[in-house]
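quick one before i forget lol
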Amino acid sequence: MKKIATLFAALLCTAGLFAQTSKLPNVKEIVSVENENTGETVEVVNLPIDGMNRYFLHVGNMGIGDKVIQINVDLVYRLYIPLGNNITDAVAAMEELKTLYKEPKGAMREIQGSFKPFFPTEETVTVQVYRYQPLLSNQLQFVIERDGYERVAYLSKSDFGTLLSGLKMYGKTHKSEL
């Protein structure tokens, strides 16, 4: 009888947990690219915040170290770059960021980004975006300085182009979000 009463009490206690609505945000993936060399995934996502659509560029998980040597140990914190509240603004923000690929090697811009566990929020940090050009490639290097070390993520020009093309295609098929 004790076992049945304990089981019944446990079911009653957990039923309330399942009945509550989830507080996790509903992240909608617009376009995603997995880099074959690194296995890193970058994406453009739509996340409703306070009832409004918000579009973000997720540049992947960031390593810890300096600008040259990075150790990827943190799979929780992610860097999201806000792109705007509709597809038109998101495409314009991506086009503006794309111009950095044509700048001289080492050129830098400061932008705002959300560096939080799992999902972006309204709270932002300053992100330094460099044009980085290792052997025969063209990349953007996203850098956040924290407590004497740097968090860094990279986005190749080809992956960026795929994301931008996918976002434009999404805009053509989802005119209500323009």
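fyi The CA atoms of residues 30 and 45 lie 5 Å apart.
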